[in-house]
Amino acid sequence: MDIATILGILSGVGFIGWTILNGNDPQAYWDIPSLAVTMGGGIASVLISYRMNEIINVLKVTAQAFIGKKTSNEDIIRLLVRLSQKARREGLLALESEQEEIDDPFIKQSLQLIVDGVEPEMIRDCMGLELSTLQSRHETGQGIFKTAAALFPAWGMIGTLMGLINLLKGLTDAANIGPAMALALVTTFYGAILAYFICQPIANKLKVKSQEEILQKEMIIEGILSIQAGENPRLMEYKLKTFLSPKQKEHYDTQSSPGSAEAGRGEATGEPITE
Amino acid sequence: MDIATILGILSGVGFIGWTILNGNDPQAYWDIPSLAVTMGGGIASVLISYRMNEIINVLKVTAQAFIGKKTSNEDIIRLLVRLSQKARREGLLALESEQEEIDDPFIKQSLQLIVDGVEPEMIRDCMGLELSTLQSRHETGQGIFKTAAALFPAWGMIGTLMGLINLLKGLTDAANIGPAMALALVTTFYGAILAYFICQPIANKLKVKSQEEILQKEMIIEGILSIQAGENPRLMEYKLKTFLSPKQKEHYDTQSSPGSAEAGRGEATGEPITE
Amino acid sequence: MDIATILGILSGVGFIGWTILNGNDPQAYWDIPSLAVTMGGGIASVLISYRMNEIINVLKVTAQAFIGKKTSNEDIIRLLVRLSQKARREGLLALESEQEEIDDPFIKQSLQLIVDGVEPEMIRDCMGLELSTLQSRHETGQGIFKTAAALFPAWGMIGTLMGLINLLKGLTDAANIGPAMALALVTTFYGAILAYFICQPIANKLKVKSQEEILQKEMIIEGILSIQAGENPRLMEYKLKTFLSPKQKEHYDTQSSPGSAEAGRGEATGEPITE
Amino acid sequence: MDIATILGILSGVGFIGWTILNGNDPQAYWDIPSLAVTMGGGIASVLISYRMNEIINVLKVTAQAFIGKKTSNEDIIRLLVRLSQKARREGLLALESEQEEIDDPFIKQSLQLIVDGVEPEMIRDCMGLELSTLQSRHETGQGIFKTAAALFPAWGMIGTLMGLINLLKGLTDAANIGPAMALALVTTFYGAILAYFICQPIANKLKVKSQEEILQKEMIIEGILSIQAGENPRLMEYKLKTFLSPKQKEHYDTQSSPGSAEAGRGEATGEPITE
Amino acid sequence: MDIATILGILSGVGFIGWTILNGNDPQAYWDIPSLAVTMGGGIASVLISYRMNEIINVLKVTAQAFIGKKTSNEDIIRLLVRLSQKARREGLLALESEQEEIDDPFIKQSLQLIVDGVEPEMIRDCMGLELSTLQSRHETGQGIFKTAAALFPAWGMIGTLMGLINLLKGLTDAANIGPAMALALVTTFYGAILAYFICQPIANKLKVKSQEEILQKEMIIEGILSIQAGENPRLMEYKLKTFLSPKQKEHYDTQSSPGSAEAGRGEATGEPITE
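Above: the input entities. Below: the structure tokens describing the complete assembly.
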């Protein structure tokens, strides 16, 4: 899990807990029926909005997005450069033997298409379609949390309205108006916490992760098509490096020079990129 | 009806009902004139916003969207693969005899165009136009519920304002300010329930259903054009499978292997996709 | 005028009127100075936002949009099919004699371009430009009502703020705080009615009408270019029918079969579309 | 200055002034420190948001947009038609002598490019770039006023919060709570007036003016390229007229018939547009 | 640092400070626990929304954006014109010696590609990719501050809700309700200041800076491709000048005439742009 996520959760829970404990009566913030109507109502609206299997799927994917680890862009560039060099030396069919050592299913699948001799236009189409299906699945995931982030405060307000109606209807003794109003406000408090501390940040993080994954897949598509077209590996490496941030680029160059001498040599000695 | 929808409706109604019954006076939440002005006003604004036949049409389509069942993407891919194989063996005209067994009017209609020998460009144009007309009809449907979701809280607020004006104007006895204010707030409560429990979730669900249907139709267009172009059925199958989610893809592969041996054979034995 | 619009206006006015009459004092909702500052202020902001001639023009067009009647898409398809058949039999110049019987200026004008022998590319450009000018005029119209719908509640709030400041500044007797507050809230009430019952629904209806008109004009452009290209009238009919909703399509087919036997014959007898 | 702007400013000031004077104490609405924190804070946030020279530039351009006058689209069409006729009779180089009599720098500059024999593709590129730079400058201008319209109410709220905190902290005598609260609300009032009466309408007007100017420039580009291509002046006139509204078109035709007989003749006598 | 930024910060702090000091009790606005829950909660939500390295990176870039200085567009045009003239006189390889004197890494890198003889299409692709990676990095930066600007008021509201619940729950003595409420409102005040005085303006400024940088890079791409294509330097200068505002253009022409006589000569003497 990302260090920022852990820090965020701990510090958020800490600040809320500390404020609650500093109050006159910590129990004032805890009311099961209020929590039930806010969470229950919000989840009910989300259930009507989406399909069951989508919701279950998104919960799984979200857990994975927060915990899972992915291959770095730099490693993928190195892999693609190596494949490109091999393909130029030994032909496209030589890539078949490489497939088994590759973990990423997206690269594996595309290599199979190259080896099978499918036309570049068709490969670009298939990979593009796969990318846009992936993107729309990601958007559904973000959409579920964004919808929840919009509905929880609404249900918090519904809960508070119900509390106020109850309170005002039975208003006989001015003395207990305070605690009753406090109780009515608790649902708004729950709605705000659920939306602004949980759902909205998760939707944001899912978007960030999705953008990263799609960028990586776009980079892979560029690389695969370049390999198939038999482009110069050094030129391909240069092109793929434009997908890196300046810091990653620097890091990549430092790592590549000693490590993969073959790929980095031309650059180090100032040789021209073209042959 | 989707299990999530049923669960959502039941749990939402349950949580609201439970909160009402737990209150001092369940009747405090029930006021016919308040309901009339909130719902009536909101519906009046929706009526001015749209045309009568659109509104009636949307209500029908919505009912269908919640209840109706549609053919799965996997079955459609299997059907298209079978048609493609037949067309390659026996020629495009052989598809005419297949038409009668196909339920989906969109596929049926496109097959007729192929059999009639209409040019691919024209078929793509016609099917694309049909898709965009469908999409704009769907958007009108979502728009009606989104408009309603925005107008109900506004009319809830109008009702509360009218209640407050009435209450404040006749303010002589401080004792009955409570119940009168409770009554004024009831319209805001109705507006919130109508918007966040009914209209907004319906608009969301219609959007999800529309995206699914349009994706399916795009898949059909790809398939039909591939059949007409005489592309390799296995390659077409590969391309259409990019429209499936990873889970559906896995499920499709499992089902296809024993079931439709012909389509799955090449894959199972690791034969190349191209001929 | 559309039946939904009439129903909407009547029911909206009815619900508001009924709520007012049910109150303690119907006169509480009526205050000329409050109406003046809400409407006057909102209109003043709209006047600064747009040009005088645009505002006047939009008011005219809006009246027309609510009252005026337009040719149905089905009639236009029939007309275009008839023109297409004539052009194929007697040549493009024969269309000149038809022009006088056509009401729609957009079709008339385009036919003149065909008769004059202007190139297809130029006709598409001119008609496309005309369409986009129309669209931007429509958007200005919707924009004026949307702006008003956003500004009226703001001025309602300004009115209420002024009422509250006045009330609080002169607060000496707690007894008359109620009626004064009621008066202050009346401007918010006016702002909400003007926005959510009048301006927002009008802006929505203008958008719906604009989409319909633009779809119709796009259909005409497709038809005109098809006539000029000398395409098969039956194929053109098939293409134009994709602009219809399923219900209109069905209705069109029922009407066409007995009425315009020539156009419908091929379809009825199952003849192929191509020659 | 546009008549609508003057009317808007006068009526807006009038309605506010009248409401203030009708109140118990006109001085209740006037508080220098409140104005200072609302305006000062809003302007401070705008200053951090943009660059100094942009802000100064926008203020200048805004003044010009409200006061300045521009050439009508109809006059520009007449000018372009005249230039087109001259170019066809005497060649493109003959346009050099016309340049001096043209005020519009955009037309002047483009004519120079034609006379210099620059290629059409290059002219379209340069004029397109100029247009998009203009558009992004306009958007910055609108953006500054939109930002201000969003920040002034926020600072009005900050002022009111500060007033309330001050008031509640020192709450000892319930008697002076009214006037103190009135004072606290004054900043919200200022923020609303600054946003909804001044900044938002100016941003709207700038957008309207910008759209007009860009449409005019697009029309000029079409005309200039048509002149360079040596297209028929009557056809060009027809094409450029699609940029006019129906009313302007009618007005143009009425004016052109007697005035510029040469350009209008063909149309009046029903001659075909093509030669 | 931009003069407007300094002015904005000073005046904003000044107006807030002055209002606080003018109040009854300046200490009313200062409460460490309130600041902790508002800032801490907002930052916690931002931490969950983004990755740690992105957040750290954005803080660095932001500091640089406010302090750093960049080369003016005019200087870059002059540089590109000089390079273009050299390339036409001495060939593309002569650009290699120029590289060392160029500071801008984007120009340097592109020149290397030209010298290496990479194809124009490939150069355009690489530079375009680099630009879009840069743009998405900039958008992440703006996104972090926009997210913070949306979350701080939400956490201010959460803080106020907690304060109100605490206050109402323990409501026994009506005398101390005032100060307790003041304290509850302080978190809303902090949230508003953090959002509308700090985060929103920074997000705006980052957007303005990003647009400037991207425009400059687009101008460089146009110039580099023009140099490679061997276009006339004067025509290239004319094209690049369309990226300048009218004021910059005027300034550029004034500076260029005496300074770089060679580049300005043709223009001054009215020579045609083409050779």
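Note for the figure: The two ends of chain D are 44 Å apart (CA to CA).
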